[in-house]
Amino acid sequence: MINKVVKNADEAIKDLKDNMTLMLGGFGLCGIPENCINAMVKKGVKGLTCISNNAGVDDFGLGLLLQTKQIKKMISSYVGENAEFERQMLSGELEVDLIPQGTLATRCLAAGYGMPVIYTPAGVGTEIANGKEVRKFKFNGEEKEYLMEHAFESDFAIVKAWKGDTAGNLIYRSTARNFNPMMAMAGKITIAEVEQLVPAGELNPDHIHTPGIYVHRIFQGEKYEKRIEQRTVRKK
Amino acid sequence: MINKVVKNADEAIKDLKDNMTLMLGGFGLCGIPENCINAMVKKGVKGLTCISNNAGVDDFGLGLLLQTKQIKKMISSYVGENAEFERQMLSGELEVDLIPQGTLATRCLAAGYGMPVIYTPAGVGTEIANGKEVRKFKFNGEEKEYLMEHAFESDFAIVKAWKGDTAGNLIYRSTARNFNPMMAMAGKITIAEVEQLVPAGELNPDHIHTPGIYVHRIFQGEKYEKRIEQRTVRKK
Amino acid sequence: MLDKNGIAKRIAREVKDGMYVNLGIGIPTLVANFIPEGINVELQSENGILGMGPFPYEGEEDADLINAGKQTVTLLPSASIFDSAMSFGMIRAQKVALTILGAMEVSENGDIANWKIPGKMVKGMGGAMDLVASAKNIIVAMQQVNKAGESKLLPKCSLPLTGVKCIKKIVTELGVYDILPEGGFKLIERAPGISIEQIKNATAGKLIIEGEIPEMVI
Amino acid sequence: MLDKNGIAKRIAREVKDGMYVNLGIGIPTLVANFIPEGINVELQSENGILGMGPFPYEGEEDADLINAGKQTVTLLPSASIFDSAMSFGMIRAQKVALTILGAMEVSENGDIANWKIPGKMVKGMGGAMDLVASAKNIIVAMQQVNKAGESKLLPKCSLPLTGVKCIKKIVTELGVYDILPEGGFKLIERAPGISIEQIKNATAGKLIIEGEIPEMVI
């Protein structure tokens, strides 16, 4: 097998260049590729188009790449509480393409599953439908209108998993799964950072969420902060 | 929670009626819903349209429903070695719609994922494309032609899993997974028969292949034969 | 006049045993607290949970286990985890029986606006457009008048739409309304102590009142 | 003239380290036996395996673990299992780098027919139409002439097609051919002891021979 294991995030992103399009896994701050984001800040690549459900917070996640103005365009469904994001968006420094969350997920799936387009009812009759093909189909006994949406193309997909093996197989933990599996399938080059990297053979083949065929580079990340965005608890 | 657990296959299929359309999981004889097939033979429902990758063998799997002439139409990708099937097909007693295996899988997925149609390159330029919309799309940097294929509709989806819980969550074992997860998602009513039925809470939520939302009835099957179609071995 | 909890309590009565339900942020989240004894529902969270449980006990938060509002949560025994494609797949395929969400405006033909105010910072629609475009059964939980005292039940939405002709029922601080297929807010129940006159004053869209309108029982 | 194992052995030289490969039934399956030392490939089986291993030892067969030919198999340590939708998803998305399959006929523009003979019992195309429509790199392993002595490398296929303009390379008992983008079977290598004359006689479609054609080294 060609060796997919790289030393660290720096090596994983060594050929990531200015003006590339990236997919980044995670929902809020949950399941984001922390090590690769830090490495991108260090590397200073600029003009990035980032496909990611959210944009991090001011001082964590993709917010770090916003602070350093490395992102040219965000394609997201919700950009949350992020003062620097807001400033760059309102000043026109940052392009923002807001799309429905299911559309985002399904356009990634389409890329991984070799479907050039998908149809979704999300956004029909709204400004999201502007300039897009609208077509009627019958589904579940009901005729309604659907929008045609294209599979995403991306140079790199950067995902975070809980466990991975040397063959590139990945297992996610709890809701840190979110967008990671579809993005892993969708990158021209897919980089996976994992909390635990194990030899091939240690993961149960029935438990693998992302087969190794989709993963080109893998490394064990370090110093995961796994910050909680909204700590909600109840008393014992 | 509404109780999804039924006693056995007879109870699970009690309202399955003549001339209905069914999806049946399995690849060859691997991962087929043995108990429900036997119960359908016993019940004698007729005129069935069966969406199933294969058609069993003469004396096992869907072959049993062919022997009793309960099947009106098969929608499959490969019908294998089955003398009675061949006789009925050649005599015109049985309608057969042969479609590419990936198209079969993806039309099930489309039903479960609320996508009214999908586009696939499989069958372009062949007789499979007759009467279907052909459309050019660019994917992966290459422009080519795709066929539009519709999501399947089915009255019942009948699947077999390894483990299931009382909430309807399912886990498949090895390649007995095959078509079962997509079909489970695609039935108006989905019946799951499982080798081991456990209380909700015993399955690891990260290992569940089919979330319970897709499963309407579940029972623990009995006397699984799990016949092997091609026993290939090597000497120690 | 109902407070937020009152609205949530009234909506909870619409929830049937065995339903799979998606609750939006705000008042909808409160509905979970008022689901009657003997009624069991499974909550879907569109980031990939079925069988979402309450907040964790202090000290038991898990950064890997959050809901669509990014809050730490727990899982019920019946829970399963899945990716975002499957999550919106089950929403589009209408396996999620009921969606409850908030709104800025609803029109008399069932259009909803709840994601964007021109000129203000736009945070995004998240999963709202997918949910309203797909769900067979949507209940809106909202205040009937805004801070300026203007009705949010309108002939036509003034804000950019989230979805068209999708809302079937609305519960506000003043009443419960069905949106009729042919258009119009049909008053079903009055909130305790609220008069027909108050409701008329707070409804800019076509209001339909037929016969005696009962006071809500919560 | 090559036997089946010879054809498989020659094809095995086309396999590169780290490739994900789908092998059809028949001669293609034999290719796995001849992959050179130091070259590691992962075999995909379209019923849901990556990292398919050899047949199990006697007594260790598992009814739940079969390949696309319905034969009992084993898994390598690198293996993963997935459903049929993902399996064909990765095929359509061209993640499977190489597909090797048999054929009844191939035409000089790269069309392939391998699933149906009119008037005979038709068993179905299985995954073949998906594979030929999607794969970037397809090698056909076949006998160049049929039992009646007729060439199966044709100007145009006479049988119903499996796919159009998709075949790039053919290995037969007589030689190795590239199919040129503009059409034509370009002879690349002769099988040991086979003359250009024999190849010409066994090729009905446009045959392109440029310069000296080397004898194959296996």
Integer average pLDDT of chain A: 96
Radius of gyration of chain A: 18 Å
In total, the number of domains of chain C comes to 1
**Uncertain ranges of chain C:** none
Largest interface: A-C, 57 and 57 residues
Write the layout of secondary structure elements.
The complex is a heterotetramer, with 2 copies of chain A (236 residues) and 2 copies of chain C (218 residues).
Chain A: H1 9-12, E1 21-24, H2 34-43, E2 48-51, H3 63-67, E3 71-76, H4 83-91, E4 95-98, H5 101-112, E5 117-120, E6 134-139, E7 142-150, E8 156-165, E9 170-171, H6 180-186, E10 189-198, E11 217-220
Chain C: H1 4-12, E1 20-23, H2 27-31, E2 42-45, E3 49-53, E4 74-81, H3 84-92, E5 98-101, E6 105-107, E7 112-113, H4 128-134, E8 138-141, E9 153-154, E10 169-171, E11 175-179, E12 185-190, H5 196-201, E13 207-208
Parallel strand pairs in C: 1-2, 1-5, 5-8, 6-9, 8-10, 12-13
Antiparallel strand pairs in C: 2-3, 3-4, 6-7, 10-11, 11-12
Structure characterization notes:
- The complex is a heterotetramer, with two copies of chain A (236 residues) and two copies of chain C (218 residues).
- Chain A has six helices and eleven strands.
- With 236 residues, chain A is α/β, with parallel strands linked by helices.
- The longest helix of chain A is centred in the middle third of the chain and has 12 residues.
- The radius of gyration of chain A is 18 Å and the shape is globular.
- Chain C has a single domain, classed as 3-Layer(aba) Sandwich (Glutaconate Coenzyme A-transferase), CATH 3.40.1080.10.
- Chain C is globular.
- The mean pLDDT of chain C is 95.
- Chains in contact: A-B, A-C, A-D, B-C, B-D.
- The interface between A and C is large, with 57 and 57 residues.
